[in-house]
Amino acid sequence: MKLNKIFPMALAAFALTAFTACMDDVDEPNTDGYLITSKTDIGEVNYSIAQLKNEHSSLFGQTNAFEQVKEDLIIEGVVAANDCGGNLYQTVLIRYIDETKPEGDADRDQAIVLGVKHTWLTPYFQLGQRVKVNLKGLYIGCYSKLPKIGQPYYTSSGNLRLGPMLLQLCATNVQLVGTPDPSCAECQPIELSPEWLRTTAYRNYKNYPQLVTVKGTIQEADGEAIFAPESLQDAGYGVDRTLVNSENNTKVTIRTSTQNDISFTVMPQGEHSFTGLLSYYSNWQVQLRSVNDIQ
């Protein structure tokens, strides 16, 4: 009986010793297998997000359209929004500020969505991370008027739409540059005034997607209601709330997907600031990155 008890204990002790021997303090863990982007330089930047939008204006001006890029067009930008809070599914916002262009120039500050098919992108695309993307072989266009980079897919209704690109394409078409710097200019949101939001001329793809801050009071907030209960979700698994600015009654949709930290958060009453990804469909829409985007 004593032998039966001692043997398992001795075996466990041996296994623990063997494990610690393998994990020597001097050894660095090999993380190569966790890198989903290119391990080598994908080439020099020879294009910009502004050029992409300017040279494909008829494409980005549509509601749902896309085309494949046949050339080695390499753009650069900084991750300004990701899926850290679970609200921006398979979405990374890439933003580039061209300081050679003057303030007020529409081409100075441009952004586009990079769609990647993966359950959680934040560990690989952290806020403030500079990236390069070779567009060759990928598709550009818009999904519900939102400019993005990805691949086409069939919806449940049988419609062909521009969705996220396959994860394995990151290894050949996407490269991380340097280390994340969340304090960089590209990670600072643009504060939109009620007057700007009411200006019809600004409702075009040159002004979205973008990282912005809007202010107002959520119309549906009563001190108990949460952002996105499943009982209110639409066909896109999201819930729309109306943000109203008291200055001139400007309205912005706060769209939240269900089943994430934001969706279960009680909507704050009174005026607050909300930061997130700006888009436009039938009206201006903002999707928060995380609960920290509510101030």
Descriptive notes:
- The protein is α+β, with helices and mostly antiparallel strands and 295 residues long.
- The protein contains 5 helices and 15 strands.
- Strands 1, 2, 3, 4, 5, 6, 7, 8 and 9 form a 9-stranded mixed beta sheet that branches. It has a 5-stranded mixed barrel with strand order 11-12-13-15-14.
- Strand 10, helix 5 and strand 11 form a beta-alpha-beta unit.
- The protein starts with a helix and ends in a 7-residue tail after the last strand.
Average pLDDT score: 90
Identify low-pLDDT runs.
1-31
Cα-atom radius of gyration:
23 Å
Quaternary state of the chains: single chain
Number of helices: 5
Structural class: alpha+beta
Binned strand content: 25-35%
Order of helix and strand elements from N to C terminus: HHHEEEEEEEEHEEHEEEEE
Fraction of helical residues: 10-25%
Task: Give the termini distance in whole angstroms.
Answer: 65 Å
Q: Count all strands and give the number.
A: 15
